[in-house]
Design brief:
This protein has a seven-stranded antiparallel β-sheet. The chain is globular, with a radius of gyration of 15 Å. The protein contains five helices and seven strands. It is 35% helix and 29% strand. The chain has one domain (4-169): Alpha-D-Glucose-1,6-Bisphosphate, Chain A, domain 4, CATH 3.30.530. By secondary structure, it is of the alpha+beta class.
Length: 173
C-alpha cells in the first residue's frame, strides 16, 4: 500500500510541544502527485469524499457526542462539505476550526472538555519526491477522553489510511 505510517514530522507546527503532550499521536504519509495544490484543496481532496457508510458512522458519533454536551459540527459539514475560495485561521474547514494555515501546512481541530485534537496536513519534500503527511494528535483531559480514544483509535487508523489511499487512487492528491 502506498500509505506509510510514520512519526509526526519535526517540520510540523504541532512539533514538539503538542506532540510531546499528546496522549495519542499518529501520522500517515503518502506520495503527493499535486504539490502545487493549496492546503485547503488538499484537505478537501481527502476529507470531502467520505463513502456513505463512513458519513453515517460520523453522524451517529456526532449525535452521541452532542447528547454528551460536546461541540459537534452541523450534519451538512459531513453530508455535503463545501469548499470556499479562501480560508484563514479561525475559519471552519469541513467540520473543524482552522488553528494554523501556511503555504505548506494546515492545522485544524477542536477543543472539548474530554480531549483536544489537532489534525495536520503537511507537504513534505522527501528523497522519493513530494509527499503529504497527515498527523493526528489528541491530548486527553479526563477518563472520558481516554475511553473515547480507546473506542475510536482502531477506526481512526484504518479510516485515515483508507481516505488517503482513496484520494491518491482517484488522483485528487
Amino acid at each position: 500500500m502506498i500509505v506509510s505510517t510514520t512519526q509526526v514530522p519535526t517540520a510540523s507546527l504541532l512539533y514538539p510541544a503538542q506532540v510531546a503532550a499528546a496522549w495519542f499521536r499518529d501520522c500517515h504519509t503518502i506520495p503527493l502527485r499535486h504539490p502545487q495544490a493549496g492546503m485547503a484543496q488538499l484537505f478537501h481532496a481527502i476529507f470531502s469524499h467520505h463513502p456513505s457508510w463512513l458519513k453515517r458512522l460520523l453522524l451517529l458519533r456526532n449525535r452521541i457526542a452532542a447528547r454528551a454536551g460536546l461541540a459537534v459540527p452541523p450534519p451538512q459539514a459531513i453530508l455535503a462539505p463545501t469548499a470556499r475560495p479562501a480560508y484563514a485561521v479561525g475559519d471552519t474547514i469541513g467540520p473543524w476550526p482552522i488553528f494554523a494555515l501556511t503555504e505548506t501546512e494546515l492545522v485544524a481541530g477542536r477543543n472539548n472538555p474530554h480531549l483536544d485534537f489537532r489534525l495536520s496536513i503537511l507537504k513534505l519534500n522527501t528523497p522519493a519526491g513530494p509527499a503529504l503527511a497527515v498527523s493526528t494528535i489528541c491530548t486527553v483531559h479526563n477518563l472520558a477522553g481516554r475511553l473515547y480514544l480507546a473506542a475510536i483509535i482502531p477506526f481512526h487508523r484504518a479510516g485515515m489510511r483508507m481516505l488517503l489511499a482513496r484520494a491518491h487512487a482517484a488522483g485528487r492528491i
